[in-house]
Amino acid sequence: MGKIYLGINMEFVRHHDKPFAWGVQKAAEIGYQYIEPMVHWGRELLSEAGYFHSVSMYDDPLWARELCEKHNIKMSGLSSHTPLCKPEISVEYLKLAIRWAADAGAPVVNTDEGPKPLWTTKEQDYMLMTYTLTEAARVAERYGIKIGLEPHQQYSKSPDGLDSIYNLVKSPAIGINYDTGNSYLAGTADTYEWLERVKDRLVHLHAKDISFAQSGEERGKVTGTPVGCACGDGVVDWKRVIDICKTCPNDIVFSVECGNVPDAIKSFEHLSKLI
After folding, report:
1. Is 220 exposed, middle or buried (0-12, 13-18, 19+ CB in 10 A)?
2. Is 250 exposed, middle or buried (0-12, 13-18, 19+ CB in 10 A)?
3. Is residue 64 scored above 80 in pLDDT?
4. Alpha-carbon torsion (139, 145, 146, 150), positive or negative
5. pLDDT at 126
6. Mean pLDDT calculated for residue range 90-109
7. CA 260 to chain centroid
8. Whole-model pTM?
9. pLDDT tens digits for range 173-188
């Protein structure tokens, strides 16, 4: 029987124009046990100036680990989404993310197939994804890191589609990062039945709620959304999600995906009572 822990994706400070370190401290103050940083290549202006939460993988991962230890919080994984269908981007990005995660203390790197190239066929895309995931899994196996495949784009928007990507490469390093909001918005299957289907392969969960307004406007028309509303304010039945995850073979971190600090506080309060 799996235990459930509460974490938060660092997207919750994006609209506050605050840096990573500020977000780590704020997450700990709210009471979260885990954070999920977003990592990027190279350098970019907003993060370097202290106005954005994303962390450069050129930065020392041990610095990030020590910052978390200072605030008595851990990393549940990395938000390291990169288009698996574009190996010229994703292969080296994922390999670097895996090595960075191992040093930083993040056991999972989360990704999806990403927007596909405009000119490729589905058959070609699956060959490209096989190449990318094979290269990434070989590194992940050495470092003891899990790759969490998320329902988020054109091929992973249904249970069969997500499984078709998962089954491309047989590796103990590959698992599922289930996103409650993306799966709901895709509208291809019952959110809870889909979770039951992947629970034995679950390595991480994006706890994303969808407002009733967004549900009415976008369900069945999109394959995902960056963040949701506060958990408990939307359409997701969190008690049902929690009950399913308690039967997982692994412990699972619920990484809340919301857009601001007030929603992070509401989400923590709501989920804490149910867990």
Report:
1. exposed
2. middle
3. yes
4. negative
5. 98
6. 98
7. 17
8. 0.97
9. 999 999 999 999 999 9
> How far is it, in rounded angstroms, from Cα 4 to Cα 55?
26
Amino acid at 160: D
Q: Which residues of 116-154 are buried (b: 16+ CB within 10 A; e: fewer)?
A: beeeeeeeebbebbebbbebbbebbbebebbbbbbbbbe
Order of all β-strands in the sheet with 252-256: 74-75, 34-36, 4-9, 252-256, 202-207, 174-179, 146-149, 108-112, 78-83
Domain 4-274: what homologous superfamily? Divalent-metal-dependent TIM barrel enzymes (3.20.20.150)
Which letter, b or e, does each residue of 12-24 get, where b requires 16 or more Cβ atoms within 10 Å of its Cβ? Answer: bbbeeebbbbebb
The candidate with the shortest Cα–Cα distance to 141, out of 169, 104, 167, 166, is 169
Give the whole-angstrom CA distance, residue 115 versus residue 110: 15
pLDDT tens column, 141-156:
999 999 999 999 999 9
**Other CB atoms within 10 Å distance of the CB of residue 179:** 28
pLDDT at 2: 84
Question: Where are the domains positioned within the chain?
Answer: 4-274
Q: If you search the block for the tokens 């680990």, which residue do you land on?
A: 65
